[in-house]
């Protein structure tokens, strides 16, 4: 019986020389096969292994073992050499308006548009831009002026829409950026780019970079916390996922810790009946011992992260109940944040929690508010969205300011992109829709490191293109890092053979005009 | 035989006479060199343009003798085995002397023509003169060295010349790049050996508009050329008295008359104007800075006024420039130890040690009291920020804190502090931030804060002293 060439159950063992492979490969194999060759090569391999062993502590560790590199150590110095310079801000709070608020209805005042109601936007403004599938087929791009009047506020006389009566009160404290711009026109790539500096998943987000670089200020709370605002089912809620606050190639202990938006922000926080603190501690000690054995055997840095997370969870069992206990808040808190702040999961409640976390040394808090994706019914939905967020943002900045926290806290209000001036779908006297717009959108910052009371950048008459002082997402992130004492060009992590950065690979610049 | 002897005696006497002549020649030249600065007095006044035009070749020309001088010892060493190189060394030495002399003249032209003065300038000049004299001496003794008579003198002179060269070149570098050019980016541990020269300040005017808003502008934009180390046009702007005194061209500030103040005239000229300041290559003043200068002069250019209308609140509120606090790294072991024993941390403000330390108590706040605080006194000069919010400290803390001489920010929110003893903080000249929110501090106790010279941000939320408005500037102004 004829046997198959690769059958192992045969009298004459098969060698690669019998295989249908190129002769060159066979020749190479034959060369390797001699005993002399084998021993010679083995010697070299051993040499390299020994060299690697000698260098291991210095050279290879930075590649292999990120978890071991502790950020600012307790010893008053730190291994990463961070912050690079004395920072203005120690911590940051990032209010993320997911979906893309329409800038021309909130901050980017274009009074001249009223006269152009329903006129087609000139082609020259749009240029050769590729639109989303939602409006690419539209025959007309009718200009939809903002439905709401604007007013001038503060000593700076900044124009703000009547939809934001509370934010209007703090314009003198804000650094408004009208020319933020991004590369992506759809939600997922744009929101990834905004948070991680890259449209593809797998890169660490701003908060993870900060947790890695600056480390924790309070041992009992996470360094980076993410708060979700309860969704309003009437709104067009785009999904947000944990990769937005993930740690990418950094150790997972730097990922954001999400608190739930319900009354119970951390599930199973209390020990079950019959398990007291002592028992819990003993159990954790044993688990840690087993984990350490695994670490010694396998050497996976993620085991380290796991150990750290168990310990953090244990400490959070006592620190989180204190954090969310609002019973001792003075009356002035509720006067400021409004009654909504008493309901867990509202934006105002999250803003109050963010202030409490700032007091308690949480390095970075990110609050997500979804629902800004107003493709249609802007007139119906925008007042709801503003009503949900306006007071919370105002209260947070005001509260931080009166408590002396705004000096060293950077507050950021941003989204993944803005919206178009032309109406998506039909434009009527009473209503309009707006599509995604990456070329310019309005964001603001306040507090440590940025210059208060300024409006930065100019857009054209249609709030469509940047005319002066563009701030790209990468520049935006570089500026945030600068406020926290980090030179974005020097802050890197070796991964896949690259010095990976939050702002790489295209050069980014700190926007000096925004700085205090 | 006899004839031969006679000839050799004649030759020797000739050589000695020749040597003496050479020595006399060298001495004469040296005397001329020493007299040179007295003949061409640097009077701080710019002179004819062509002097400066030629003088500006000094910085490039200077590298010619430098290169040759550095080459010289190598040639001499190699010359011990290869005679041809020894001959070359003699040639190079003479050439270095000649080019050095030309360079010196050009340097004088530059200084005289541009009207520059100052300590570094004269150090550089005298260094150059000393170097030339040493080279003259080298040229003179070298024949004796070659003939084997004076074996040690020439090498010793050469070494001295090279040391003089290094020192002089460093002075020159400081003139063109600034005196901190080498040390600015030096690794921290090394910087300890090069303490940054503390610049003179008007201690008497601490807290005034002049010190807060005007002096920093002059310091950043002007003092590099109009300061202690370099006095262009005989003008120094680093101290108030000297600023008011003016330079060779007379007073530069006309109080209440900005348009007739030379300082303001020069910085507001067209940038292409020859007289525009800061001179080419340096950053011009911003519109805000010019506005602040104008407002200050208009209000009388007082060194003591604490508020001046027209100087933007933002500029007035601008943070104090960070004062370096020295390097604490020699205390690292003690720092580790106290962190272990007390639980509170001393965290580096940044990777630069002279930025100081933050005392962070948050992990042990409820147990951190005055006894523990007192144990951190050892690190007092390095602590720039004390986070004592919600700790167990009380009014006794002011005793310890008064010794934190470099403290910039003090958090006492939510503590049992009542304000008794706040006056002890008045020794803290760097303190700009004080948070007393949620304490029992009364407005009566606040009067004691008057003495803190640079306090800009004070927080009194939820205290008996809480102001009606959250405007901290107004609170401060009402105190003063």
Q: If you had to describe this structure to a student in words, what would you say it looks like?
A:
The complex is a heterodimer of chains A (516) and B (480). Chain A has 516 residues and is an alpha/beta fold. Chain A has twelve helices and 17 strands. Chain A has a single domain, classed as 3-Layer(aba) Sandwich (Alkaline Phosphatase, subunit A), CATH 3.40.720. Mean pLDDT of chain A is 89; it is low at 59-78. Chain B has 480 residues and is mostly helical. Chain B has 18 helices and six strands. Chain B has helices at 2-39, 49-55, 58-61, 63-79, 83-114, 119-146, 153-177, 188-191, 209-221, 240-245, 262-268, 287-298, 313-317, 332-342, 370-375, 397-401, 443-446, 472-479, and strands at 345-348, 357-360, 383-387, 409-411, 433-435, 457-459. In chain B, strands 1-2-3-4-5-6 form a six-stranded mixed beta sheet. Chain B is elongated, with a radius of gyration of 31 Å. The termini of chain B are far apart. Mean pLDDT of chain B is 84; it is low at 312-316. The chains are: A alpha/beta (516), B mainly alpha (480). Chain A binds chain B through residues 72, 74-78, 81-87, 217-220, 330, 332, 359-361, 398, 401-404, 407, 451-453, 485, 516, and chain B through 314, 319, 322, 328-329, 332, 335-336, 339, 345-353, 355, 357, 360, 362-363, 389, 409, 411, 413, 433, 435, 437, 457, 459, 461-462, 470.
């Amino acid at each position: 019986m004829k046997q198959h060439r690769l059958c192992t159950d045969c009298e004459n063992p098969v060698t690669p020389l019998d295989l249908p492979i190129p002769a060159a490969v066979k020749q190479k194999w034959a060369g390797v096969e001699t005993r002399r060759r084998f021993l010679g090569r083995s010697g070299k391999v051993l040499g390299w292994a020994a060299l690697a062993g000698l260098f291991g502590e210095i050279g290879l560790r930075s590649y292999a073992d990120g978890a071991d590199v502790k950020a600012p150590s307790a010893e008053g110095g730190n291994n990463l050499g961070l912050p690079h310079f004395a920072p203005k801000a120690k911590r940051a709070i990032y209010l993320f308006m997911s979906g893309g608020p329409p800038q021309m209805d909130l901050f980017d005042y274009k009074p001249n548009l009223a006269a152009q109601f329903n006129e087609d936007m000139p082609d020259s403004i749009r240029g050769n831009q590729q639109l989303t599938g939602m409006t690419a087929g539209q025959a007309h791009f009718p200009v939809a002026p903002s439905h709401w009047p604007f007013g001038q506020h503060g000593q700076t006389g900044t124009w703000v829409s009547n939809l934001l009566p509370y934010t209007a009160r703090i314009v003198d404290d804000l650094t408004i950026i009208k020319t933020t711009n991004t590369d992506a026109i759809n939600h997922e790539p744009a929101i990834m780019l905004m948070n991680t500096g890259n449209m593809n998943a797998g890169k660490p987000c701003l908060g993870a970079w900060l947790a890695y670089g600056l480390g924790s200020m309070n041992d009992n709370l996470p360094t980076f916390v993410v708060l979700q605002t309860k969704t309003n089912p009437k709104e067009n809620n785009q999904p947000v996922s944990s990769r937005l606050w993930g740690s990418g190639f950094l150790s997972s202990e730097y990922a954001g810790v999400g608190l739930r938006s319900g009354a119970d922000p951390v599930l199973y926080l209390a020990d079950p009946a019959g398990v007291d603190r002592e028992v819990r501690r003993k159990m954790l000690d044993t688990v840690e011992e087993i984990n350490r054995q695994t670490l010694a055997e396998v050497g996976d840095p993620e085991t380290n992260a796991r150990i750290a997370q168990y310990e953090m969870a244990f400490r959070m069992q006592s620190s989180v109940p204190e954090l969310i206990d609002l019973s001792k808040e003075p009356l002035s808190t509720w006067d400021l944040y409004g009654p909504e702040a008493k309901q867990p999961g509202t934006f105002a409640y999250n803003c109050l929690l963010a202030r409490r976390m700032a007091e308690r040394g949480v390095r970075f808090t990110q609050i997500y508010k979804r629902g800004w994706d107003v493709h249609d019914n802007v007139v119906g939905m925008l007042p709801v969205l503003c009503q949900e967020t306006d007071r919370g943002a105002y209260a947070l900045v005001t509260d931080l300011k009166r408590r002396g926290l705004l000096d060293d806290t950077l507050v950021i209000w941003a989204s993944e992109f803005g919206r178009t001036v032309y109406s998506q779908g039909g434009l009527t006297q009473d209503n309009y829709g707006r599509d995604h717009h990456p070329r310019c959108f309005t964001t603001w910052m306040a507090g440590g490191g940025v210059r208060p009371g300024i409006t930065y950048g100019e857009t054209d008459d249609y709030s469509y293109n940047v005319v002066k002082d563009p701030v790209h997402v990468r520049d935006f992130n570089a500026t945030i890092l600068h406020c926290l004492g980090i030179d974005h060009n020097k802050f890197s992590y070796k991964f896949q053979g690259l010095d990976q950065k939050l702002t790489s690979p295209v050069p980014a610049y700190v926007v000096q005009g925004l700085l205090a | 035989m006899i004839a031969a002897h006679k000839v050799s005696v004649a030759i020797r006497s000739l050589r000695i006479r020749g040597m003496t002549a050479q020595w006399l020649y060298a001495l004469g030249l040296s005397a001329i060199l020493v007299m040179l600065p007295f003949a061409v007095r640097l009077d701080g006044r710019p002179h004819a343009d062509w002097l400066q035009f030629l003088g500006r070749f000094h910085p490039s020309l200077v590298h010619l003798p430098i290169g040759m001088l550095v080459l010289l010892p190598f040639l001499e060493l190699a010359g011990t085995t290869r005679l041809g190189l020894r001959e070359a060394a003699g040639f190079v030495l003479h050439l270095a002397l000649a080019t050095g002399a030309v360079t010196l003249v050009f340097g004088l032209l530059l200084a005289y023509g541009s009207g520059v003065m100052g300590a570094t300038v004269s150090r550089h000049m005298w260094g150059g003169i000393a170097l030339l004299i040493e080279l003259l001496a080298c040229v003179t003794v070298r024949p004796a060295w070659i003939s084997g008579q004076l074996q040690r003198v020439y090498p010793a002179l050469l070494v001295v010349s090279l040391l003089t060269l290094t020192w002089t070149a460093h002075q020159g570098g400081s003139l063109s790049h600034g005196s901190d050019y080498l040390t600015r980016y030096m690794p921290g541990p090394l910087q300890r050996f090069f303490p940054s020269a503390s610049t003179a300040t008007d201690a008497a005017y601490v807290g005034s508009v002049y010190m807060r808003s005007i002096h920093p502008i002059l310091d950043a934009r002007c003092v590099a050329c109009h300061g202690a180390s370099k006095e262009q046009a005989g003008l120094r702007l680093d101290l108030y008295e000297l600023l008011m005194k003016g330079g060779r061209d007379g007073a530069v500030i006309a109080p209440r008359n900005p348009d007739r103040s030379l300082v303001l005239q020069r910085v507001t000229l067209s940038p292409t104007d020859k007289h525009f300041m800061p001179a080419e290559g340096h950053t011009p003043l911003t519109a805000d800075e010019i506005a602040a200068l104008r407002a200050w002069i208009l209000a009388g250019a007082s060194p003591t006024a604490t508020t001046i209308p027209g100087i933007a609140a933002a500029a007035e509120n601008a943070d104090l420039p960070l004062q370096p606090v020295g390097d604490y790294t020699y205390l690292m072991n003690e720092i580790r130890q106290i962190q272990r024993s007390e639980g509170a941390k001393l965290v580096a403000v940044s990777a630069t040690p002279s930025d100081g330390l933050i005392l962070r108590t948050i992990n042990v706040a409820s147990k951190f009291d005055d006894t523990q605080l007192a144990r951190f006194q050892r690190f007092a000069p390095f602590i720039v920020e004390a986070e004592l919010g919600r700790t167990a400290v009380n009014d006794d803390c002011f005793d310890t804190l008064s010794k934190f001489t470099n403290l910039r920010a003090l958090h006492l929110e939510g503590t049992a502090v009542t304000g008794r003893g706040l006056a002890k903080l008045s020794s803290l000249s760097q303190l700009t931030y004080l948070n007393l929110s949620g304490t029992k501090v009364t407005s009566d106790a606040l009067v004691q804060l008057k003495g803190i010279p640079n306090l800009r941000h004070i927080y009194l939320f939820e205290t008996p002293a809480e102001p009606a408005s959250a405007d901290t500037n107004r609170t401060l102004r009402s105190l003063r």
